Amino acid sequence: MNVEIWSDVACPWCYVGKRRFEAALAAFEHRDEVTVTWRSFELDPAAPREREVDLATHLAQKFGTSREQALAMQQRLSGVGAGDGIEFRHDIARGGNTFDAHRLLHLAAAHDRQDALKERLLRAYHTEGEPIGDPATLERLAVEVGLPAQEVRDVLAGDRYAADVRDDERTAASFGISGVPFFVVDRSLAASGAQSPEILGELLSRGWSAPATAPETADTPAAAQS
After folding, report:
1. What is the 3-state composition of the chain as percent helix, strand, coil, each rounded to the nearest 5?
2. Which of 67, 94, 119, 134 has its CA 20 to 30 A from that of 52?
């Protein structure tokens, strides 16, 4: 059984969703027969390599709220993250374009290191304050998880895997995906948002016995941020 997860590195709910999915998968009886594929989704395709304003200011501008309201939103999210073992450091997060990060995730898939790179990128951005759109930073993080340094440099210097990222995004659009994380089991069943481990576990169980059809979606109130 294959689970595809549309996700963006700059999305905090995607980090929470990853932790909850991992908990669901660990409790799933057939976990050794499940493959996980991370699919590309950009919450802000037009983002610069690094934003000049801090994350709270950006969120206030994006959602039309005050900076104080954005800070309160971040505080609530930090509480959610702590419950899943995540330390969000919104105060040092350096937002930026994630297109190159997604291209490297496709390279990592070719080397069977995709989940390791996904985890490293999420921690780097949300906890360590690394500039997620900076090529030198991306190269260092990719090499840390075992990707060949020269191949990483070649990808970042050219347009390799750009078409794969766009293909993921077109598929997302065809499924009606407008927010992430979004989980699809064998192109048969789907769940949107950072659902609880129990709900994601139910999705896995249903997917195990479901025939392949167009994705049937279960929505969640969790909203994506960039």
Report:
1. 50, 10, 40
2. 119
The alpha carbon of residue 146 and the mean position of all alpha carbons in its chain are separated, in whole angstroms, by: 20
The label of the residue with tokens 């210097």 reads 157
Residue type, 170: R
What is the reported pLDDT for 138?
A: 98
Q: Cβ distance 132 to 100 under 8 Å?
A: no
146: left (phi over 0), alpha (psi -120 to 50) or beta: left
Q: How far apart are CA 175 and CA 170, in angstroms?
A: 9
Question: Rounded to an integer, what distance in angstroms lies between the CA atom of residue 192 and that of residue 5?
Answer: 10
pLDDT in tens, 19-57: 999 999 999 999 999 999 999 999 999 999 999 999 999
**Which among 224, 222, 100 is positioned nearest to 159, based on CA atoms?**
100
Domains and their CATH numbers in the chain: 2-218 (3.40.30.10)
